[in-house]
């Protein structure tokens, strides 16, 4: 059983998956920072600094100044604003990932040397074909 486990781990696809997960986690941090620190502030300029995450409906009794205060008091909260922000962030992250993948693919394609197109030169006629043409031309003259 240990030998089977060792063989399973040693397979290339398992190692590739592990590397992919590690790189993906690091990439997630980069994209999250790009969205939170660079893109969201620009978007907030256009929408007037509106933060949807504070929008909620209490599902219990009481009057609270913030969603955190209601949650700390143990009151059920329908936090639809957090959902809206999660959707907006998802769309932004998906678009940023799309742009990054597109840039990486473009850079990879530029790095790969494209083969030089080879001109196809028609083959010259063989000796037999020339002789047959001469024969046919002589028959036409006679």
Give a summary of the structure in a few sentences.
This protein has five helices and two strands. It has helices at residues 2-10, 12-46, 67-72, 80-111, 127-141; strands at 57-58, 77-78. The mean pLDDT is 81.
Description:
The chain contains 5 helices and 2 strands; from the N terminus they run ααβαβαα. The N and C termini lie far apart (90 Å). It has helices at residues 2-10, 12-46, 67-72, 80-111, 127-141; strands at 57-58, 77-78. The chain has one domain (2-141): Non-ribosomal Peptide Synthetase Peptidyl Carrier Protein, Chain A (Orthogonal Bundle). The longest helix is centred in the first third of the chain and has 35 residues, at 12-46. The chain is elongated and about 115 Å long. The protein has a two-stranded antiparallel sheet. With 142 residues, it is an all-alpha fold. α2 (12-46) crosses α4.
Proportion in helices: 55-70%
Number of helices: 5
The CATH topology annotation reads as Non-ribosomal Peptide Synthetase Peptidyl Carrier Protein, Chain A
Number of strands: 2
Give me the side-by-side strand order of the main sheet. 1-2
Strand proportion: under 5%
Uncertain runs: none
User: How confident overall, as mean pLDDT?
Assistant: 81
Structural class: mainly alpha
- Give the N-to-C terminal Cα separation: 90 Å
Number of domains: 1
Largest sheet: 2 strands, antiparallel
Q: Give the radius of gyration.
A: 34 Å
Helix/strand order? HHEHEHH
CATH superfamily: Large-conductance mechanosensitive channel, MscL, domain 1
CATH architecture name: Orthogonal Bundle
Shape: elongated
